[in-house]
Design a protein that fits this description.
Elements (H helix, E strand, L loop, with lengths): L4 H32 L5 H10 L9 H4 L20 E3 L11 E3 L5 E9 L4 E10 L4 E6 L13 H15 L12 H15 L1 E6 L5 H13 L10 E5 L6 H4 L1 E7 L5 E7 L1 H11 L5 E6 L6 H5 L2 H4 L35 E8 L10 H4 L3 E5 L20 H9 L2 H18 L12 H4 L13 H23 L5 H15 L2
Parallel strand pairs: 6-11, 6-12, 7-10, 10-11
Antiparallel strand pairs: 1-2, 2-3, 3-4, 4-5, 8-9
Helix pairs in contact: 5-6, 13-15, 13-16, 15-16
């Protein structure tokens, strides 16, 4: 009988708990037996096997058929129930301690640190790795082990990484270009470590899409229609502190007059929700952050959003503090909970870039999304239009759609980056070339010639006008000369 995803996750959590409990028992029982019996998981995973005499330290778990029996009830992690997990070397505190999905070199290993209060060795974190690379690392607490609850979102993400590495273990060569999965994984890890991230780079590289995918990975939330743990706002020139944090807003009063009342802004309401569920990651996305005046929007929050001052230690009193009622979630002062992550997007070449000052920049980690890293957007299988439309997919593949669009995009960007008046900041993202579909008759046969003609329309209607706008202010003769050079490279 096929296992549901929920059953797989429950089995996986049991295995990890047993893994941690066994390491801590073997490593501590000789010197601290009484204390080791009180460690989390001992009563469930270790004591029953001590009582019936089946617990043995001998040999490597699988080969010795000793420790392996501890996880036997949960070791079937795929639908066929054929996955076997090898556990431990004879020395649990050594680098040979691992869980291994049989048939691969993908491991889960443990990081063990001294617990000064108990004079014992405790498992602090677990990580998925191969012999060459570490893929993901999380603490025992973050994974929710021994909490008596169902699998949390962090454990789900840990499981997904383990499964992904298993599924791709046989791939002999790395892909020629960065896959969307690899980039999302990298950005997810970057966000986990730094709390605040700005995705910057050329227009059309799908930065907002990436931010949403990272939010899904962090929160485990898939429903984009009614998200509970993700909020997206787009800054604009009239956006201010009142909209974002709190302020006095007009409201109808009972006497028919218009009065003013203190109202929480979208970010304060979001932080209040995050405060109520501290174990759940919450992600706040700010799209086009540089279109707003960030100094005015964030106000006193420059201190509170700093990754080093999250939680109550970063508490600030806003300009409206005396008006906040006692029952408010932040009656004693506003702070950004530790489980809130900020992801912002911006285009470097936007005219309003000057509004991002150095004080703000210091509080964020900056990551450039380059066009060459997002060429996978143009793969036929990744186009939204062809999802569940196998006939259209075959048409575009036969017309060499992806390779043609990628080639045109790369040639144009090579020429743009070589121009003294432009440079890499003015490159165009692959999203511009998805517009090629607008100029194809998708109900008819799609040929290479048709794709060439569509790419010509993309140049005439989208790219040349954009590039001329970038060059505004130069002499017309210079502009025409540069455009002609770019056009020649575009058409090769």
């Amino acid at each position: 009988m096929a296992l549901t995803e929920e059953q797989k996750l429950k089995n996986f959590k049991h295995i990890l708990e047993c893994f941690v409990a066994t390491i801590e028992w073997i490593g501590n029982s000789e010197k601290h037996e009484a204390a080791a019996r009180k460690l989390p998981g001992h009563a469930v995973y270790i004591q029953p096997h001590l009582d019936d005499g089946s617990f043995r330290y001998s040999g490597q778990g699988y080969k010795g058929h000793a420790i392996q029996k501890l996880i036997a009830p949960w070791e079937a992690l795929d639908d066929q129930g054929i996955v076997t997990i090898n556990v431990f070397s004879p020395h649990p505190m050594s680098s040979g301690t691992y869980l291994k999905w049989s048939g691969t070199e993908i491991f889960i290993t443990a990081g063990v640190e001294p617990d000064a209060a108990q004079d014992m060795q405790r498992v602090h974190y677990l990580y998925v790795c191969s012999n060459q690379e570490e893929f993901i690392c999380m603490t025992v607490k973050k994974l929710g082990l021994f909490d008596g609850r169902g699998p949390n979102n962090n454990l789900k993400r840990f499981w997904q990484e383990f499964k992904y590495q298993y599924d791709h273990y046989e791939e002999s060569a790395a892909p020629a270009q960065c896959s969307a999965y690899d980039l999302v994984k990298k950005l997810t890890d970057l966000t986990l470590r730094n709390k605040n991230v700005v995705l910057t780079g050329a227009p059309g590289t799908g930065k907002t899409y990436l931010a949403k995918q990272v939010a899904k990975a962090l929160t485990g939330e898939q429903d984009e229609q009614e998200p509970q743990y993700v909020e997206l706002v787009q800054f604009h020139p009239s956006y201010d502190f009142t909209d974002f944090v709190e302020g006095l807003r007009p409201e109808n009063q009972t006497n028919g007059q218009i009065g003013f009342a203190l109202k929480a802004g979208i970010f304060k309401e979001f932080c209040a929700k995050a405060k109520e569920d501290p174990e759940q990651p919450f992600v706040f996305i700010i799209d086009e952050i540089n279109r707003g005046e960030v100094n005015k929007i964030f106000g006193e929050l420059f201190y509170a959003i700093d990754p080093d001052y999250r939680g109550t230690k970063g508490k600030v009193k806003t300009q409206y503090q005396t008006l906040i009622p006692d029952g408010d979630a932040f009656a004693a002062g506003f702070y950004v909970p530790d489980n809130v992550y900020l992801i912002a997007t911006m285009n470097d070449i936007d005219r309003s870039v000057e509004s991002i000052d150095f004080a703000f920049r210091r509080r964020f980690t900056w990551f450039e999304v380059k066009p060459e890293d997002r060429m996978s957007m143009l793969e036929v299988a990744n186009l939204d239009l062809v999802q569940d439309n196998e006939e259209l997919k075959v048409k575009l593949e036969q017309a060499n759609f992806s390779a043609l669009c990628q080639g045109y995009c790369q040639r144009l960007n090579d020429a743009i980056s070589a121009q003294p008046y432009l440079g890499t900041a003015y490159e165009v993202g692959p999203a511009y070339f998805i517009k090629t579909l607008n100029y194809l008759d998708l109900d008819d046969e799609v040929t290479e010639d048709a794709v060439y003609e569509a790419l010509e329309s993309v140049w005439n209607c989208h790219l040349e006008p954009l590039l001329r706008e970038y060059l505004r202010g130069k002499r017309q003769e210079e502009i025409d000369e540069i455009i002609e050079t770019l056009r020649a490279n575009y058409y090769d």
